[in-house]
Amino acid sequence: MPAFSAYDGTQLAYHVLGDGPPVLCLPGGMQDSVYLGDLGGLLAHRQLIRLDLRGTGHSATPQDTASYRCDRLVDDVEALREHLGLDRMDLLAHSGGANLAAQYVTRHQKRVGKLALITPSVMAVGLTITGDTRLEIARLRQDEPWFAAAFAALETIVAGRATGDSWQAIAPFSYGRWDKAAQAHQAAEAGQRNWEAASAFAADGAFDPDATRTALARFGQPVLLLAGEVDLAAPPTVMAEFTGLFPNAKLVVQPEAGHFPWLDDADRFVATAAAFLSN
Predict the structure, then answer these.
(1) Whole-angstrom Cα distance, residue 28 to residue 32?
(2) What b/e string do you get for 46-68 counting C-beta neighbours within 10 Å, with b at 16 or more?
(3) What is the torsion angle, in degrees rounded to the nearest 10, for the CA atoms of residue 251, residue 120, residue 185 and residue 3?
(4) Is 13 helix (H, G, I), strand (E, B) or coil?
(5) For residue 164, how many other CB atoms are within 10 A of its CB?
(6) pLDDT tens, position by position, 117-175
(7) pTM
């Protein structure tokens, strides 16, 4: 397993899949990057370099757990770029990893070629996803056999009355198809996530949305935002707002896709991502 030393001596692991020009892939949720897999087969078009963020996957746990904070992880990404000997690199970030990518762009614009944000979190840029928006998206799934129980749980979350069972009950909303593959993917999540790191990721001081938005407005490189049509976590309407923060960005909404679009329709996802990264 290839590894490198971060600024504080923490050993960080990364995974290399496929051949061709590299694209650095940042996972979300302070979760083992294994959940990204080969992004539906994108490795047939680009070399994927999946980083295990500190404290996750095969990477070591840092002595200072405050270093899990998102803004501090930027230095880990920069250390990997230097380790790989890349003057400029393309970035692909999923979910919470988009917050890290946005902050990396803010501090190292000249080091980024193309930027692909897949169903991205919006914490770093200060956008708002309302409960009503999530409920509206959820209602698109009303013909699913699991809908009634999942929607009732979502209503308790939106109302601020969530329990642990509520979060588990809404899991089907994260996937375009709640089939065996999706259920296995979701079941593996708890064992892949570093919950301490996830709690520290967005600690006080992690984000400066005004500064980040100002920096992104100056980032002229090509940007792709890929949203899932039925994704509660990154609704297409909010992704359209996110797209507008960049001067050279396009939004693609993948039909019938949830938060993991490469699982819902690998061929469509790969066609979109490969076309963007190859042009």
Answers:
(1) 9
(2) bebbbbbbbbbbbbbebeebebb
(3) 120
(4) strand
(5) 7
(6) 999 999 999 999 999 999 999 999 999 999 999 999 999 999 999 988 999 999 999 99
(7) 0.98
